[in-house]
Automatic annotation (TrEMBL):
This is GTP-binding protein 8. PROSITE patterns: G_ENGB. Pfam families: MMR_HSR1. The keyword Nucleotide-binding applies. Keywords: GTP-binding, Magnesium, Metal-binding, Nucleotide-binding. Signal peptide: none annotated. Gene3D superfamilies: P-loop containing nucleotide triphosphate hydrolases. The gene is GTPBP8. One of its GO terms (cellular component) is mitochondrion. It comes from Loxodonta africana (African elephant). Residues 104-277 form the EngB-type G domain. SUPFAM superfamilies: P-loop containing nucleoside triphosphate hydrolases (SSF52540).
Length: 279
């Protein structure tokens, strides 16, 4: 289905004013981009796929989650803060028993090495809620607490401290306990730096997710820093790792850039979908 049709469909939906949230203005702009630019921004894996030899294509699982542009547009609305639908910081905690109550569905958290780009990713996902403050830093080990953010009445997202270099001392107690015991956690996003690929420290998190049998999703960060060839190599390598060495990892990778926003819209749509909010 062409994107031009999606534009008119979504525009019509917006004019009808249907639903608590509808397409964000910035996404209307995205839909006006030339096809190639739009694909690169919204479907970065598809853009890479064009450079693969036909017989290697099946190794990239591109088609597992392939929403329509209309669905992506609606998800963008879910991540837009309005007076009726507030996206906001809730609280921070260093221990599980300090975390917000379990009544609100938690749904998603972001884990990964320090400096991999967890806070930056959250900030990019919240770019249409500019009043939400997510702190990022060049210095690894910046996020010291579990930070809870709510997306209206729908769900909560958690930014975690990183593991590895300059990780907080109580990291293990904090993050392991959280992952193991948080009953309302539906999906864990495990971030891997696309420039360097899976490192020893990443294996800690992978093993943790596997051991606790958590459903998790691998996100490749900072893709703006990779050449096309390098990114393709990393994506294929990591995809192979996921296919052969993991049980609980969703077999489609999500490459993103918090700088160019490549892959961010698709990830918003995936989160809307797994939290049951893609109406
Ligand atoms: N070029 C580029 N830089 C990024 C991207 N995402 C994050 N960075 C940079 O990477 C550094 C670390 O980012 P953070 O988001 O603070 O990383 P973090 O994973 O939250 O780190 P800790 O809180 O220390 O665990 C910062 O200098 C960011 O500007 C990206 O997509 N592209
Ligand atoms: Mg951080």
């Amino acid at each position: 289905r062409g994107w031009a049709e999606a534009v008119s469909e979504v525009t019509a939906a917006r004019e009808r004013g249907s639903g608590a949230y509808s397409m964000s203005q910035p996404f209307a702009e995205v839909l006006r981009l030339p096809q190639r630019q739009l694909t690169k921004l919204v479907f970065p894996l598809q853009e890479l796929e064009r450079h693969l030899a036909p017989d290697t294509r099946p190794s990239l699982r591109l088609r597992l989650f392939e929403p329509s542009l209309e669905a992506i547009a609606r998800a963008d609305g879910l991540f837009t803060s309005t007076a009726w639908h507030r996206i906001e910081y809730v609280s921070s905690a260093v221990r599980l028993d300090h975390a917000p109550g379990l009544l609100r569905p938690e749904k998603v958290c972001f884990i990964g090495r320090s400096n991999v780009g967890k806070s930056s990713l959250l900030k990019a996902l919240f770019s249409l809620a500019p009043e939400v403050e997510v702190r990022i830093s060049k210095t690894p080990g910046h996020t010291k607490k579990m930070n809870f953010f709510k997306v209206g009445k729908y769900f909560t997202m958690v930014d975690m401290p990183g593991y590895g270099y300059r990780a907080p001392e109580d990291f293990v107690d904090m993050v392991e306990t959280y992952l193991k015991e948080r009953r309302n956690l539906t999906r864990t996003f495990l971030l891997v730096d696309s420039v360097v690929g899976i490192q020893k420290t990443d294996s800690i998190a992978i093993e943790m997710c596997e051991e606790f049998a958590l459903p998790y999703v691998m996100v490749l960060t900072k893709i703006d820093k990779c050449s096309k060839g390098h990114l393709l190599k990393q994506v294929l390598q990591i995809q192979k790792f996921v296919d052969t060495q993991t049980q609980g990892c969703f077999p489609q990778l999500f490459p993103v850039s918090a700088v160019t926003y490549s892959g961010i819209h698709l990830l918003k749509c995936f989160i809307a979908n797994i939290t049951g909010n893609l109406r």
